[in-house]
Amino acid sequence: MTRLICGCTWWGLASYGLDEMLKKISRSGYDAVEIGIPNSAREQHLLRSGLDKYNLDLIVHQYSASGNNFHEYCNALQKSLELAASFQPLLINSHTGKDYWSFEEGCHVFELAEEISQKYSVTIAHETHRGRLLYSAPVARQFFLNLDFLKINADFSHWVNVSESLLEEQENTMLMAISRAEHIHARIGYSQGPQVNDPRSGEWEDEMKAFSGWWKKIMKRHIDEQRPYTTVTPEFGPIPYTVSMPFTHIPLSDPWELNLYMKDYIKQLFQEVLNAL
Fold it and tell me: Is residue 60 a contact partner of residue 89, using CB atoms and an 8 Å limit?
């Protein structure tokens, strides 16, 4: 039986410190933490011990690779992915490349990541994120058509924002994306932004329906494939993703509370998929 693993993003929680953050995540009913690997050996040790202490699985968020040129970036990405793989996570979610790179450069980077994936027997899912190689549905489609191995973290909020639509005219591409999805970032985007102000508000009914449909199809695929688990991380983020009041910098919503809501909502969707089988 495929089980649902709900991850908690560390985005917006770093100020707690590693131990307190992991404790908060565990006590709030999450199964895993999605986090970048710290730079220092001491913090890396604290992360390893904290995962055991609080009985949390690990999803690594790779976002730090950078460089002054393409060659430097590739070297940095390799080191970052290999460090992530050494922690034996459930999977690695990678912010990969730059949106202005050529198609050939993008293919090279994805092939590099796939070599690391095979070498360390770890799944690497490339995030569908603005500013990265998979920043839009039509661009991702070209990579799908040419790279059979390419896997994604489905953060469709960015594609909705980039296209200023709910991707109604790109259904075939969305089916391709769903077939490549290894992980889900459960955040609701809309035509003018990657994060609605509050998913509990009825004004976002159409968006909730669209995203829920995509997520359920990914979950069903994982269940049909008899996977041991499927992973979802609610990812409503802090300011500036969370809209704030002018002049005051007071957020209009609390991303921690929104993510707790999304965690329970995702569990409900997963149960609906199971019940329909």
Answer: yes
